[in-house]
Write a structure and sequence with these properties.
- The chain is mainly beta.
- It is built from one helix and 60 strands.
- A hairpin with a 5-residue loop joins β15 and β16.
């Protein structure tokens, strides 16, 4: 739990407006500071707690410096950065006019920049202390660090960086002091504020081609180095801090792996603590504690515990978590800290860190932006509920969620309750706050069309930075897609049935078979319901459609003794088989799946070994699914295969196709009364196929299709046209079904 507390009534919002300060110095009039409180950002404010006594500022506020009477902060207002001074005493805000401002760490002095002119202003009194032009310092100087009444600047002498300290004399003039005590050839000089009267400098030297990184302390009164410490590799992003007793800095011994280094002043034993992967960090010393953390966590897409701003006791002991993340920290003159960051409980803003009654550092909310630190849902359009007819809604379901942050990882899972099959889609992080939109196309992961039935869905949004809890939303709906005649897994699409050499029967979905090449196929294993046996007990298998009265497609099977059985469809399974009757071994050709009587139910035709065809009308009764036979006619012995294909040519009822012994395929259009019109020649060359069978409406265009496997196992689809003149379009190789099930003893229907 974070060691935080809430302010009392010291900073009331009612006193956020202060009187105008008139600032004059050295005879120069300075524009007054208009005290206008900035507008607050309230998005997500309901997620924050205990903020009623905190000052309010816009999102993105950063603290630049803190002194005895107040602190300097800034925020973006459109394309302009606005700077404000806030008094500790009452929280009154003063908007600083015009140009950018900086701060002299630990003081009430701010530095106004106007071109190359710098003005140091004491905000406790509104007094302008000094004004100078950096271009007239006596050389080509680049300012690096501003002090209360001076600055440190670098110049270049003989291609060597040379640091100088400029301070103000009794007459208010800048006096140039060359900084002494650095070794010859020191390069990559970087400066940071220290305690009053000291400055930290990082630099690099080389000896025999070996880099040596160091941290030194500079006494500003004498402009000289007073302490030096060897370090591991440091970079431009290496933060550092100094107190009366210790020095701390950040090292990078490996690429982007930060280490906290702490040493007692004047000592040689450096204590190092790995901080994990990072590019920027912050570090401060506060009494007997060192406070550090990896910065940038609020906008990061990487999760790490190192974002937590943590206080470590210098004398050993338990660490204390202060903030869930910090953007930057600055040290006040009294040794306290002000941190820009946030906590899950209180949100984004500025926090003051001071010792509590036990001396342990604790963070209290000083300024709130009203923006939550945790991931918060802003808007949502969930998936629909109730019964969904996928055949009518365009085939897809849509949902979207918008959060107050861009860095979320969003996972939507839609799960079929009965089988556990699911579809999962993830949404990666965004570069800006936009909806995480999802569209489910009605298929499971892998491409199998989803089953009918009940579904549950879960949306999980994880903060990509690992800060705060996940957001979870759930719901449910029922899928109700129309059942198709050749559908054996209850998902509204036709299936190819294959019995393999081991006697197993599987249903392969047509949408996958006809989909993009090399689709990973899913199949549904169908049990025959006979203990200890497989489908090899049957010598003839048919897919007649809905023969027994249930909505789902059934299977007819003749065993080797001539008994005919019905396996009623039950969705993604088959109900226990029903015995139709014996004596069916007299027929050498059976075909079922076409409604030849026009009553809306599929029928069975059977041809005996003398070539006489009989019609068995479907009853829709599972216990007696076939009526007594009626004679259709003789002469069917000229065909070696008869197949029921449904209504493929636009006739009043279902049709048959028959292949003669010369390989010519003929179509018999159903008249709707149990008889057929005169045959129509489809074409020759069909002797090259081992299997020819009705496939239902595989392409879902409303017209029954035909499938044929050649003797090499290559499958072809003949799409029905709905025209008796040319009932089938040109064949198409079905790549995904090539060789499916092998050849030889394999049965396809």
């Amino acid at each position: 739990m974070l060691h935080t507390r809430t302010h009392g009534h010291r900073y009331g919002l009612a006193v956020a407006v202060t009187a105008v300060l008139g600032v004059t110095a050295t005879g120069l009039a300075t524009p007054a500071f208009a005290a206008t409180p900035p507008a607050s950002v309230t998005a997500g404010a309901d997620q924050l707690t205990d903020q009623q006594d905190a000052l309010t500022m816009p999102a993105g506020v950063r603290v630049a410096g803190s002194g005895p009477t107040g602190f300097l902060s800034s925020f973006m207002e459109g394309s302009t950065r606005v700077y404000t001074w806030t008094r500790h005493q009452d929280g009154a805000q003063t908007t600083l006019p015009g140009t950018p401002y900086g701060a002299a760490a630990g003081t009430d002095i701010v530095i106004r920049a106007m071109g190359t002119t710098r003005t140091h202003i004491d905000m406790s009194t509104g007094t302008e202390l000094m004004t100078y032009d950096t271009s007239t310092l006596g050389g080509t100087y680049t300012p690096k660090l501003y002090l209360d009444t001076g600055l440190i600047a670098l110049t270049n002498v003989n291609n060597q960086e040379e640091p100088h300290l400029f301070s103000q004399d009794d007459q208010g003039r800048l006096v140039d002091h060359k900084l002494t005590g650095l070794p010859e050839g020191a390069t990559y000089l970087r400066f940071a504020a220290g305690t009053p009267g000291t400055v930290i400098v990082h630099y690099l030297t080389q000896a025999n081609g070996v880099d040596q990184f160091r941290v030194a302390l500079v006494d500003t009164a004498s402009a000289s180095v007073i302490e030096t410490y060897d370090t591991l590799k440091t970079t431009l992003y290496s933060a550092s801090a100094v107190s009366p007793t210790h020095v701390a800095w950040i090292e990078w011994p490996d690429y982007n792996k930060a280490t906290l280094a702490v040493v007692r002043r004047g000592g040689t034993e450096i204590e190092r603590t790995p901080l994990g992967e990072a590019y920027q960090t912050t570090v401060q010393l506060m009494g007997d504690w060192v406070v550090s953390g990896v910065t940038g966590g609020v906008d990061s897409n990487i999760s790490t515990a190192d974002y937590t701003l943590t206080a470590r006791p210098l004398k050993g002991g338990e660490t204390v978590d202060l903030l869930d993340h910090a953007t930057n920290t600055t040290r006040s003159s009294d040794g306290s800290l002000i941190a820009t960051g946030g906590t899950v409980g209180q949100g984004e803003g500025l926090y003051r860190i001071t010792p509590d009654e036990t001396g342990t550092p604790a963070a209290s909310l000083l300024v709130t932006t009203g923006v939550p630190t945790a991931l918060v849902l802003k808007e949502e359009t969930p998936l629909p509920s109730g019964v969904i007819d996928r055949d009518r809604n365009g085939g897809s379901l849509k949902a979207s969620w918008t959060f107050v942050r861009h860095n979320a990882r969003v996972l939507l899972t839609i799960r079929h309750t009965a089988t556990g099959k699911q579809w999962t889609s993830s949404g990666g992080t965004r570069s800006e706050i936009v909806p995480y939109a999802f569209e489910w196309d009605g298929t499971f992961s892998g491409g199998l069309p989803a089953y009918n039935g009940d579904y549950t869905w879960t949306m999980t949004a994880k903060p990509a930075n690992g800060i705060g809890p996940d957001i979870v939303r759930t719901g449910g709906f029922t899928m109700a897609r129309a059942v198709r005649p050749h559908d054996f897994n209850d998902n509204g699409t036709s299936d190819l049935l294959i019995r393999d050499r081991d006697g197993q029967l599987r249903a392969y979905d047509s949408s996958q078979l006809l989909g993009p090449s090399r689709t990973e196929l899913n199949s549904t294993l169908l049990s025959n319901g006979i203990d200890g046996t497989g489908w090899e007990v049957y010598d003839r298998l048919l897919a007649p459609g809905n023969l027994g009265g249930s909505p789902q497609a059934d299977i007819l099977a003749r065993d080797k003794s001539g008994v005919l059985w019905l396996h009623p469809g039950a969705g993604r399974a088959l109900a226990p088989r029903v015995r139709i009757g014996a004596g069916w071994q007299i027929y050498d050709k059976l075909a079922a799946g076409s409604d030849v009587t026009g009553d809306g139910r599929p029928d069975l035709v059977a041809t005996d070994k003398t070539g006489v065809m009989y019609l068995y009308k479907g009853t829709g009764n599972a216990s007696a699914p076939l009526a007594n036979r009626t004679r259709v006619g003789a002469g069917w012995g000229i065909y070696n295969q008869v197949t029921a294909v449904g209504n493929a040519a636009g006739a009043p009822a279902g049709d048959l196709v028959a292949r003669d012994k010369a390989g010519v395929l003929w179509m018999y259009l159903g008249n709707g009364n149990g008889t057929f019109a005169s045959r129509i020649r489809v074409g020759g060359g069909w002797q090259g196929y081992a299997d020819v069978f009705g496939f239902g409406d595989a392409d879902r265009d409303g017209i029954a299709d035909l499938m044929a496997y050649d003797i090499y196992g290559a499958p072809y689809l003949y799409k029905g046209t709905g025209s008796w003149r040319a009932p089938y379009a040109s064949r198409t190789l079905v790549n995904n079904a090539y060789g499916l099930g092998g050849s030889g003893t394999v049965t396809r229907f």
